[in-house]
Write a structure and sequence with these properties.
By secondary structure, the chain is mainly alpha-helical. Bound molecules: zinc ion.
Length: 257
């Protein structure tokens, strides 16, 4: 078999230990407050004149949005140019974008922090603080101790039941699935050893290949579940692995599906 052999640690105790070793102190905070100009977790500020709070609704921060609504939703441009007296900060109310992990159980908290850290380390695409907050709320609502407590399909339907807008649902689901896949790899290992026996290979988990983690589209998976004859499935897997390994060695792009 191709690929490195990863020592397996069975049981959640092993996973918790790995997470404790993997999540760095700056991502282990209950309250993560990335800078506005952070390359991955950066956020935009409210467009009201003179305001520096994070943008949340209709281009505005929460207090400005609330004030605009309370004034009967006047013309936005007029309101934003002269949004009235400065909004005074309330004690205990953060004036920056933040992710609050405190409602999560100890292990699933580390799992999501590890996912945020991994996206940050990859520096491949931006990750919206709002999206992470949505996922944290969603996971906290299920009361699960680990992302591995639910299958990928169960997480997708959990996200759908929360009934967000279509764009937000897509973003939140992508991050949720990314996080679950990441934790699964941390739990059981990586590469061909794990993927080969599955009916669905995750291309991102195969050595030498990479995909954009923000866009886990259908073609990021190679599916074998539709092949009912075991011998044919095995033969197909062998052939695809041969193609993938060959492609990776020659630095070719793999295309399939
Ligand atoms: Zn504002």
């Amino acid at each position: 078999m191709i690929g490195v052999t990863v020592p397996r640690t069975h049981g959640r105790a092993g996973l918790l230990e790995k997470l404790m070793g993997a999540v760095r102190p700056e991502f282990r905070a209950e309250l993560l407050t990335p800078a506005a100009d952070d390359p991955v977790l950066g956020w935009k500020t409210c467009v009201a004149e003179g305001c520096g709070r994070p943008k949340r609704n209709g281009g505005m921060c929460d207090p400005h949005y609330a004030r605009w609504r309370s004034q009967g939703k006047p013309d936005r441009a007029v309101f934003l140019a002269d949004p009235g007296p400065a909004i005074r900060g309330r004690p205990g109310h953060l004036e920056v974008a933040f992710i609050d992990f405190s409602e999560l159980g100890p292990q699933v908290k580390l799992e999501l922090q590890y996912a945020v850290q991994s996206r940050w380390d990859e520096q491949a695409s931006v990750l919206s603080v709002e999206v992470v907050r949505r996922v944290v709320r969603l996971v906290a609502g299920t009361g699960t101790a680990s992302l591995l407590d639910l299958s990928r399909a169960e997480w997708v339907s959990t996200a759908e039941r929360a009934r967000p807008s279509r764009r937000r649902l897509a973003e939140a689901t992508m991050f949720l699935i990314y996080a679950r896949d990441l934790i699964e790899v941390l739990d059981v290992g990586d590469g061909w050893e794990v993927e080969y026996s599955r009916d669905e290979w995750r291309v991102s988990r195969l050595p030498g290949l990479s995909i954009n983690p923000a866009r886990p589209r259908a073609r990021s998976y190679v599916r074998f579940g539709w092949i009912s004859q075991p011998w044919l499935k095995e033969l197909t897997k062998r052939w695809v692995r041969f193609r993938v390994v060959l492609g990776a060695c020659q630095n070719f792009r793999v295309s399939h599906g």
